[in-house]
Design goal:
The protein has one domain: Vaccinia Virus protein VP39 (Rossmann fold), CATH 3.40.50.150. Helices cover 31% and strands 32% of the residues. The protein is built from seven helices and seven strands, in the order H-H-E-H-E-H-E-E-H-E-H-H-E-E. Helix 1 packs across helix 4. The protein is globular, with a radius of gyration of 16 Å.
Length: 209
């Protein structure tokens, strides 16, 4: 990513609390226990921690990478208030690698900030750093909607359902869904833009490479 994205999210987290989802975890993240009852989780782009805090309270060992120090500082404070421990790291995921093997890796609403090459490399890298029977949860904006139309010439990653499925062709895809959602971005009239989001839950079964 870049300094522009960092500044954008620093400003958002400074101006508001519970910027995304009112602080509630993604519904797909709440399903992690259906496939992985315990273990280590990496939340890429975890921000203020709406997913990480929920998972830590469920007993998972959670690490968060995010480009915004403001968001992570707020996450650290909230984690202390709620009596859980979360390892937070200020990371631009386009420039740094995942160094450990995790039982689950979560990437929610990060990939649309990346160009297609970097996004697909991140997915492949995350797959290589996931344990056997580990779980990936991805939610990202797809190639249908106002946000995509505004950015379709930028080369950013807005995959179709089929494209995301192909990236996980060698995994056991448990769920793959598409639905329309309201984005945080606004159009020229100041109205929140609508866009489809695609969500995937997949398991890395032994021998999947």
């Amino acid at each position: 990513m870049n300094e522009k994205i960092k500044n954008q999210y620093d400003s958002l987290y400074t101006a508001e609390k519970d910027v995304f989802g009112g602080g509630r975890p993604e519904s797909a993240v709440q399903k992690l226990s259906d496939y992985l009852p315990e273990g280590t989780v990496l939340d890429v782009g975890g921000g203020e921690g709406r997913n990480a805090l929920y998972l830590a309270e469920q007993g998972y060992t959670v690490s968060v990478y995010d480009i915004s120090k403001v968001g992570l500082d707020r996450l650290d404070t909230t984690a202390k208030e709620r009596g859980v421990h979360i390892d937070t790291h200020v990371v631009d995921i386009t420039n740094e690698n995942i160094d450990e093997i995790f039982d689950s890796i979560i990437i929610t609403f990060v990939l649309h900030h990346m160009d297609t090459e970097d996004a697909t490399k991140l997915i492949a890298h995350a797959q290589e750093h996931t344990s056997d029977d580990g779980v990936h949860i991805i939610s990202t904006f797809s190639n249908q909607g106002g946000l995509y139309e505004r950015n379709k010439t930028t080369g950013r990653f807005y995959p179709s359902e089929e494209e995301l499925r192909a990236l996980y062709a060698h995994w056991d895809i448990k769920e793959l869904s598409v639905k329309e959602t309201t984005t945080h971005a606004r159009n020229k009239n100041g109205e929140r833009m609508r866009n489809n989001m695609v969500t995937l839950i997949a398991v890395h079964t032994k021998g999947d490479d």
